[in-house]
Design goal:
Chain lengths: ~110, ~110
C-alpha cells in the first residue's frame, strides 16, 4: 500500500462548494481508480483511468469529475451536483488494468456540512 | 451489469472458531481477488485466483475458486483477534472494471 498518497485524511466542506481530493502514486502504474465507500455498501467505482489523458465513468460518476494530465496524479472533484457527498473516498492504482492487483491509498473522509 | 454478491454481511465469532465468507458472481470471472480492510484502514490485497477449481493457502487462510469460475470462498481456521476486519472479493467478468462485493465484516470475541 505504500506509494499512493491521498490528502487530506479528513476534509470538511460546506454544502454547495466544490472540493478536490488529491491522489498521487509513485508506483509507475498505468491505471488509477476512484471508489466511494459508504457503510454496508462496499466499494463503488466512480471513475477510472487506464492511460494518461483518458478516463471512463464508473457506476456512480454523476456529480463527480476527474482529470489525468499526469501518470502519477488522478484528482477527483466532488461537485455541488453530488447530492450526498459525505463518504469515505479511496483512490487505487494497478500496473495495467483491472486484472492486476489494486493498491489503495489511505483514503479521504469527506464531510459536507 | 455484472454483480458480485457476498455473504454473510456480518459474522461474529469466538476466538478460535472458524470463519467462511462466500462470493458469487452473476457472470463467469477471468479472475477473482480478495482484499482485507482493517477497521479505520484501507483495503489491502490478499490474493488472486485465476484457474478453475484453484485452491490457495496463506497460513490459516484458504481461498477457493469454483469450477465454473463464478464463485469463490475464503476460509479462516481458528480465528484470532488480528483477523478482525472486512473481507472483500472482487471480480472482473471480462470487463474493464473490477466489481467488488459488499464485503463481510468479521468481529472476533477474545
Amino acid at each position: 500500500d505504500g506509494g499512493i498518497t491521498q490528502s487530506p485524511k479528513y476534509l470538511f466542506r460546506k454544502e454547495g462548494q466544490n472540493v478536490t481530493l488529491s491522489c498521487e502514486q509513485n508506483l509507475n502504474h498505468d491505471a488509477m481508480y476512484w471508489y466511494r465507500q459508504d457503510p454496508g455498501q462496499g466499494l463503488r467505482l466512480i471513475y477510472y483511468s487506464q492511460i494518461v489523458n483518458d478516463f471512463q465513468k464508473g457506476d456512480i460518476a454523476e456529480g463527480y469529475s476527474v482529470s489525468r494530465e499526469k501518470k502519477e496524479s488522478f484528482p477527483l472533484t466532488v461537485t455541488s451536483a453530488q447530492k450526498n457527498p459525505t463518504a469515505f473516498y479511496l483512490c487505487a492504482s494497478s500496473i495495467r488494468d483491472n486484472t492486476d492487483t489494486q493498491y489503495f491509498g489511505p483514503g479521504t473522509r469527506l464531510t459536507v456540512l | 451489469g455484472q454483480q458480485v454478491m457476498q455473504i454473510p454481511q456480518y459474522q461474529h465469532v469466538q476466538e478460535g472458531e472458524d470463519f467462511t465468507t462466500y462470493c458469487n458472481s452473476s457472470t463467469t470471472l477471468s479472475n477473482i481477488q480478495w482484499y482485507k480492510q482493517r477497521p479505520g484502514g484501507h483495503p489491502v490485497f490478499l490474493i488472486q485466483l485465476v484457474k478453475s477449481g484453484e485452491v490457495k493457502k496463506q497460513k490459516r487462510l484458504t481461498f477457493q475458486f469454483g469450477e465454473a469460475k463464478k464463485n469463490s470462498s475464503l476460509h479462516i481456521t481458528a480465528t484470532q483477534t488480528t483477523d478482525v476486519g472486512t473481507y472483500f472479493c472482487a471480480g472482473d467478468g471480462g470487463s474493464e472494471k473490477l466489481v467488488f462485493g459488499k464485503g463481510t465484516k468479521l468481529t472476533v470475541n477474545p
